[in-house]
Amino acid sequence: MLNDIVILNEKETRGGFGDGILEAGRRNPNVVALTADLGGSLKLNGFIKEFPDRFIQCGIAEANMIGVGAGLTIGGKIPYTTTFANFSTSRVYDQIRQSVAYSGKNVKICASHAGLTLGEDGATHQVLEDIGMMKMLPGMTVIVPCDYNQTKAATIAIADYEGPVYLRFGRPKWPNFTPEHQTFEIGKAQVLAYGSDVTIFACGHMVWLAVEAAKALAEKGISVELINIHTIKPLDEAAVIASIKKTGCIVTAEEHQINGGLGDSIANVAARECPVPHEYVAVMDTFGESGTPKQLLDKYGLTKENIITAAEKAVSRKK
Amino acid sequence: MEINELKEVATQVRRDIVRMVHKVQSGHPGGSLGCTDFITALYFKIMERKPGFDMDGIGEDIFFLSNGHISPVYYSVLARSGYFPVSELATFRHINSRLQGHPATHEHLPGVRIASGSLGQGMSVACGAAMAKKLNKDNHIVYSLHGDGELQEGQNWEAIMFAAHHKLDNLIATVDYNGQQIDGPTVAVMNLGSLKEKFEAFGWHVIEMDGNRMEEVIRVMADAKAATGKGKPICVLMTTVMGKGVKFMEGTHEWHGIAPSDKQLEEALNLLPTTTLGDY
Fold this sequence. Notes:
The complex is a heterodimer of chains A (319) and B (280).
Chain A: E1 9-12, H1 13-27, E2 31-35, H2 45-50, E3 55-57, H3 62-73, E4 78-84, H4 85-88, H5 93-102, E5 108-112, H6 130-135, E6 141-143, H7 148-157, E7 165-168, E8 173-176, E9 190-193, E10 198-202, H8 206-219, E11 224-228, E12 231-233, H9 237-247, E13 250-257, H10 262-273, E14 278-283, H11 293-299, H12 304-317
Parallel strand pairs in A: 2-3, 2-4, 4-5, 5-7, 6-7, 10-11, 10-13, 13-14
Antiparallel strand pairs in A: 1-8, 6-12, 9-11
Chain B: H1 3-24, H2 29-34, H3 36-46, E1 62-65, H4 71-80, H5 122-135, E2 142-147, H6 155-165, E3 171-177, E4 180-181, E5 184-185, H7 186-189, H8 195-201, E6 205-210, H9 214-226, E7 234-239, H10 262-270
């Protein structure tokens, strides 16, 4: 199963979003796209060309964009707001909290350039707290797909789901390895490999690195159960519990602060249902900086090697 | 509805406001009383409304209250115009009520389409709803109300720029120009300057009115409606007296967010005689 996972090509997850919203627009005439002067970065060109009347430019005014999105739902529209992850969350948190989440509005908050892999722009733009902020809002669904194909499928799927969604993806070209034609099930954990010694839960870009780590660990005789948690909230708790009861230890891997992210969500379930050793691969309560994506992942400890080390440590702690 | 009937409804709404706030000893009577004539006129005369309530509001005029703290007047008018039983006004700000301190959709109160209270967000929401009406080819109007102090929130000006840029000429945004906010007069707290010139500079059509004279509210809002469909969003700068109708509450920020005592309630109700609708 693990050895069947191969790189199909390398593509940006934001490209999956751009192609996904075009397809969603074709399927549903109520889908509208908003941006705050970042339509090009979010790969909206195809949508804008095909549906110019359903594209709403908001200028560099993210707070207003969120409110306009909330208003558009009153009248049956399905607005997708688009900007970088930082400006999609921390900059507009109260607007999302009151006008979208508390009001229960069907707004899709689509956030690109998340995490360290945004690269050279540096820490002002590298939001590493967004998963935490968004998952704390009651009623908010939080989705972090792992590659181009999955981002495209998720972008299409959220149009059919009624309720606020935070969809997080990234900037760089990255291995694309999930099937081209896949059904995206919101809230359903995706088991990529069955194993018995340790469960690795990963999301976003870290899933591919976890695939590579799992292959290397297999050669060392450690059997990894690898689960892609593309939906942080609602979390597939049954799948999480079943796996950790089987393997007895956890590694979580995410391009996010250790506080508030995927690791926190998994630990919450484990603490209640089945406490086991847990090692984190995450950003350790610090801001990022300028650099290439690879340099940054190396420096801040988000690599295949970090996942391998974490898994070995988690397994050793069982004994 | 005739002017004298509208005035009677407004008096009843004012009675509701002071009784609601008195009962729970909490809430915002000042701005509520100041905007009573306007919101009464909107729901009983100006807006084209369908019977019942659905969230999308397609095929009817819709209203957003951005300065959500004046929920007492909003709830009273919604109840009096049939969205929910007037008896429910007694639950205002109590536990397990649909009448939250600030308006919300979470408890599914008919008539409310967005939560408001954290200020400065309603203009954006109204813009989005106006844009949805255009996309739906729904030839109805979106009305909104904003506090003057609320315009100190920068998000408003993002929305004001947006509305003009996108030619939202089906939007009539009214500003409650009472010159008061929690910490004192707006000129002392944060001077708004000329709101008329500011809105006009942003590309809006601006109309001024006295919001406490029912005849003028009806006439000017008809003018505002006639100005829709001409490429510009419309701003109604509505001068009001905070606390209007209850002499000892009038014209001061002191009654922004405090409740009357038993004795003050009695005094207030004596100033608001009504014979027709009856208290809840």
